Amino acid sequence: LSDGPLVNCEFAGYLLLNDKMEAVDTVRSSDAIRNLYFHDLAINAKGERLVNLRKDTYLDLRDYSNDYRDTAVHCNVDYLQILDPVSDTIIFNWNPLEHIHANLFQFKQILKERAWGIGNSDVIEWTRLTSAQFDYDGNIIYDMKKIGLGKISREYGNVIWQITYKDIPLVAGKDTIRWYNPHDFNYLWETDTSVVYSAYSNGIEESERGQEELACGVVFEMNKTSLAVKLLKVIWPQKKYVGSGQGKISYRDWETE
Predict the structure, then answer these.
(1) In angstroms, what CA-CA distances link 206 with 238, 239, 241?
(2) In which band, very low, low, confident or very high, does the pLDDT at 151 lie, cut at 50, 70 and 90?
(3) In angstroms, rounded to a whole number, what is the distance separating the alpha carbons of residues 86 and 35?
(4) What is the CA radius of gyration of the chain?
(5) Between β-strands 175-177 and 170-172, what pairing exists: parallel, antiparallel or unpaired?
(6) Residue 199 · residue 171 · CB < 8 Å
(7) Which pLDDT belongs to residue 253?
């Protein structure tokens, strides 16, 4: 963290606090401030800062809406950027429209479940990215509420693997793995052959799939070579409910929140 006075604090996407909860640094993009929205933050051992920037754009959605007038619909798209720890310059920029297959975007569901903050606007949250973190190897893992979980190559930007809503429920040996409207996807630890992750599932209402699925935390293991998935643990909150779009899981092998 840098020493000295804060710079452009009013434009900061994040404030970094010390152990006394005092602001000691800011994290912001070198892009223009207008139409940028910071949603998540991760900092690796090099001090590089991974941020989610929500940008306004206009998309041709006629193939999704079947409405010939929808040639330019107001949408939010979540970009991922890595910022240099010294200069704040952009050293990695990822546009999901260039890498996520168009058939995975769920127009009707996105339109139906507008976030509270934009409920009275015309904006469609096209990607609805809910978290992005550095993985064990320096690449990037992400989750998108209406698409699923995945991993991005930092070098090329391609999707290395993904588990989308079309794959759920996922049958893995004797286990059946489920998450719906996922949030808070995290790398936990690795072994020589596998990686352990956690994700928070908001669940779904009965009307969506014919069977209600309650909110829960899911801890799973992925083989580094085959990408085969194994369920390790499902963590149920004390109160049984279906989430509305938020949620977080903090997990270690000896304790869970």
Answers:
(1) 21, 18, 12
(2) very high
(3) 24
(4) 19
(5) antiparallel
(6) no
(7) 53
Q: Is residue 136 within 8 Å of 195, Cβ to Cβ?
A: yes
User: How many of the other CB atoms lie within 10 Å of CB of 117?
Assistant: 9
CA atoms within a 13 Å half-sphere pointing along the CA-CB vector of 66: 1
Q: In whole angstroms, what is the distance from residue 165 CA to residue 134 CA?
A: 22
Provide the total of helices (H) and of strands (E) in the chain, helices listed first: 3, 19
CB 223 within 8 A of CB 215: no
pTM for the whole structure? 0.82
What mean pLDDT comes out for the span 233-239? 86
- Name which of 111, 80, 112, 110 is nearest 95 in CA terms: 80
DSSP classification of residue 86: T
- Name the nearest CA neighbour of 201 among 186, 213, 216: 216
SS3 of residue 22 by DSSP: coil
Instruction: Answer yes or no: is pLDDT of 85 > 70.
Output: yes
| CB neighbourhood size of 24 (10 A) | 14
Helix (H) or strand (E) holding 195: strand 194-201
Which tokens hold the place of 86? 């010294």
Contacts of 172 (CB under 8 A, 6+ apart): 228, 229, 230, 231
- The DSSP bridge partners found for residue 177 are 170
Can you tell me the distance from the alpha carbon of 164 to that of 167, in angstroms, rounded to the nearest whole number?
A: 5
Bridge partners, 54 (sequence order): 78
Instruction: Tell the burial category of 121 from Cβ atoms under 10 Å away from its Cβ (0-12, 13-18, 19+).
Output: exposed
∠ CA 53-110-187 to the nearest 5 degrees?
50
